[in-house]
């Protein structure tokens, strides 16, 4: 069982500490224990409940209503957030069932079939991304484990690398992008897909991958002269350092357009430097880069 401080909960959930305390005192939402020095500590169940409640409140439900629900009712309500009736729902459900059964061959088959029907890009946008969103909500509800998630992520990573490698080579005279993740950031799927989208639209990329501290970027601007720089902030840097990190990137790449994507880049009130954009969705990033060209290169 985890032992989290209230500042840990604030960092992981995005809910301010004073709000967490109010929810705890007014609604009995969490049940911390106190150390010998009278400091509150919270367990895994507290964190999961807080994340679930945050998900429901973010979809318009009142905290006073949510707090009256049992853990089982909250989990059911979180899972219901994904129960829409779009055309790809059946494919997502089939993939989800294969993942929960650790059926890697079936997962591979289903993704390959979806790619054959839709094309790789549409498979990622219409099937893989909704699946990943569903898994995120299931994690909040406590119904998926890391092994299942890692199996799917590894398979999607393989397919992204293979699809990107199959694209035609792009001349270095094309619009130039540098792509990387911050130090200690390992969530690479979104960045890999961005790399694919850019290459498919005839734009040149210098892909630097995961876990790259800013010191590793010192000589990139002078050597490569990028027109644009993109990064994805999922768990890094710390929530309170995102604006500072963006300013560091602006100093390293003073002339390039800066694209900062991911949940940490979508904080309310976040002030980003000039010529820096934070697309809300991957489709927004796609619209941004598609403005540079007319037609994508065939996969």
From TrEMBL:
This is DNA-binding transcriptional MerR regulator. GO terms for molecular function: DNA binding. Residues 3-72 form the HTH merR-type domain. SUPFAM superfamilies: Cobalamin (vitamin B12)-binding domain (SSF52242), Putative DNA-binding domain (SSF46955). It comes from the Bacteria. InterPro entries: Cbl-bd_cap, Cobalamin-bd_sf, DNA-bd_dom_put_sf, MerR-type_HTH_dom, MerR_fam, Meth_synthase_dom. Keywords: DNA-binding, Repressor, Transcription, Transcription regulation. Pfam families: B12-binding_2 (PF02607), MerR_1 (PF13411).
